[in-house]
Each structure stands twice: as structure tokens, then as C-alpha cells.
Amino acid sequence: MRFLGMGEHVALGDMYLRLAAQGHDVRVYVDDVEMRDDIMRGMLEFTTDWKNELNWVRSAGDDGIILFETSIHGDLQSELRSQGYNVIGGSPLGTRLEIDRAYGQQVMRDTMDIQTAATHRFSGFDDGIRFLREHPGRFVFKMNGAGYASFRNYVGEMADGSDMVAMLSLQRDRWAYEETPDFVLMEHIHGVEIGVGAYFNGEHFLQPACLDWEHKRFFNGDLGELTGEMGTLVTYRGYERLFEHTLARMAPLLAEDGYVGYINVNTIVSERGIVPLEFTTRFGYPGFAILDALHVGVGWAEIFSAMVTKKTLTFPTHSGYALGVVLTVPPFPYSFGYENLSKGMPISFRGDMTADDRDGLHHSEVAMESGRLITAGSIGYVTVVTGRGECAEVARDRAYALARKVIIPNVRYRTDIGDKFIREDRDLLIQWGWMQPSGEEQSSVPERHGQPRYP
What is the pTM of this model? Predict the structure, then answer.
């Protein structure tokens, strides 16, 4: 098969590497010229003009696929589909669902069997401050749009909202952009945070769907900056109830817009029900890499082929869980000083690395130089290590055993990924009826009448 990857920072680099290793032809276009000449240097084939590659993709027929990394190019994806190209990524609706949080919340209210978090949109910091003084409480601050770092988000801690007022005042005084600030204040909800995601083929969801438990804070105990993600626990089991109440109800709307790609909704669940937080209308990072550890007998190519040809709605998966841990180097999650602190550092591996161990490595900001793997990129998000097991405990232990075999100067990572799920969230989800006692009792893919399956 032929794959043309399109993105900004080679976010799907591990996916491209695995496709190429399986014998597929892969070319990658990157908007950021500096990253194109840096991340995965010496490891992937890059192109400087994606338009010149379109005939190469088209000539492969159903075996030619364009992969989009980001959610912001929905219009371009729709245009390419109208020209007959197989495109996996999202759609114009997908773009709006992710970057316009208030709109995403409205769509959730209109389509899903849920409760909703009160979401208030503002186009000025003074308006937000005035609202907080009139309605004191805990809120979550998030910018609308795709160009803002996740550490700008803030989760209010004080019941009277005074810490949020102080934070908005600082944002106002330091605002250096030409555009007017556009942000939301979302009601803070208590419960267990859990995501549900699935692949959509333009008409139907492929199954199984997945559940995920993200860990976004930089330090153990959920302290420190909000990063993109420091680690995640995932499973393809026990998703049915949450999926049917949320994503499954989005199918008509996604089909109407021609959406083809992965979509995830992050939620808070409790004994009262589901409160959805936000959509992710693209591959999640590092979620896609961790899910790869649960695929049985098929790689990304087979899943993507199923999406564009619509010959099957199911794919085989392992039971149990996979857990991934993000390995970083200073100054992550910031970029300032990376060139001097950590860029170009050697990445080494202990001598007892097995083939299965190497399969559990999912590289991100790396490059190959003089035959040695080194850190690259702009922020120090180096690699993800994964472990798989029938229970979360085994998956966690295997992931951390692998992490200890990766040697990078000044490497940093959380050592508690999955612990809160094991300690308390799993029992709460079972108590509230969102998971079965074992978590693995459901079949890997539900039977669908008349639909072909992989052997």
C-alpha cells in the first residue's frame, strides 16, 4: 500500500515507521520546515510538496491513502475526498468539534444521552473575570483554537473562584497576540475521567471501540503543568455502555459530513451519569501508539484499508489492557532552551532488550545520526514505552520494566501511570455499572449481522 502522511510535526512518526517496516511505501509531508529536516531524520522519506505526490497516491487505487495528523484541515480533507482520494483524518465538522469547544458541547447536548457541564464562552478576559465574580465557583479554563499549548489550560482549585480570577488577570496583562482572546470556562465536575474512542469509515463505526484513562499532569500525583499527555491506560474491552450513550449517537452526523478517521470524546462519569468534556477529532498522541499494542494479527494498514474499502466493520484485538509511559527530557513541556539542554542526546538500550521489548518502543522526537538514535524535535517528547497484560497491573509493570531499559541522559517520566485506576477508579466504575467486574468479559468485537470479519 501507499501512504502519504500530512501534518505539522511528524506526530504520527511511529505509525509511519511501522507501516514502512511492514513493506508499505510511506512518504511524509510536514508543514514545519525545521521539523521536516529534523524529526525522524534518516528514518523516513519526506517530501517538500504534497501536491506532487497526489498522482502517486491515486495510482495505487484503494491501496493509496492520505493520512492527516491534525484536526485543523477538515476543509482540505473534504476537497481531496471529492476528487476521489482516500483520506483518513476527519472532516470540516471534525475541525469545528475540536477547536470550537462551545459548539462541541452543544453537539453533545443535541446528540448524546448525557448530562452536560455548563460551558461559558468569552472573547475578553475582563468578561470572564466579571462572570466569576458574579458566579463564584470552580471552573476549568481552556482556549478555543488549535494553536495554544496545553499548559495554558488551568483547572480552578478554590471554591470561590479567586485563583481563576487571578489567573485570568495575569493572562490579560500578558496577552501578546493580535487576535482577540477566545476561551471557555467550563463547570468543574467530580467523578472519574475516562475517554471513549473509535474509528469511523464515513458511514459506520468500526468496532471494538476503546476506553482510555489519560494522565496529563507532568508530575506524579497529578501535580505540575498540564502537558499533552504523560501516559495512558487503554483497553478494547468493556466499552459498550459508554460508547452507546455517547459516540454511537454521533454516527448520523459524522456520516452526513463524510467524516473518516478516529474520534474520541473525553468524559467524566459518576453514579449520576456521563458528562462529556471535549472531542478529539484526530489520532490521539500517544494514544494511537498504545492502542497498537492491543491489535492482533493486523497492523495499521489493515485497519485503514477496512476504513476506506468498507469491507469489514470489525478488527481483532487482545483482551486486557495496554499502558504507555511518555519518556521526556528537559525542558519538556516547554521548548525554551531545548537546543542547549537536551537536543542531540544519545538514546541507548540495555543489552537484554528482546524483540517484544523493541516492539513496545514508539518513538516521537528522535532522529538517526551516524547510525545512532538521538533526541530531536523542539520540546523533548522523546518516546513512549508500552506494556500489555490481561489486567492493568501487569500492563503497568511491563511498561515500567521496559522504561528502565531505555537510557537517555536526564530522562524523566511519571512512575504512577495507571495507579489511580488500579487503586480506586476501577472499583468506582464497576460500582456505577460502567464496567464489568473483570473488565474483560465482553467479546473483542460484537457480532454484526451480515458484516464480514477478519479471520
Answer: 0.86
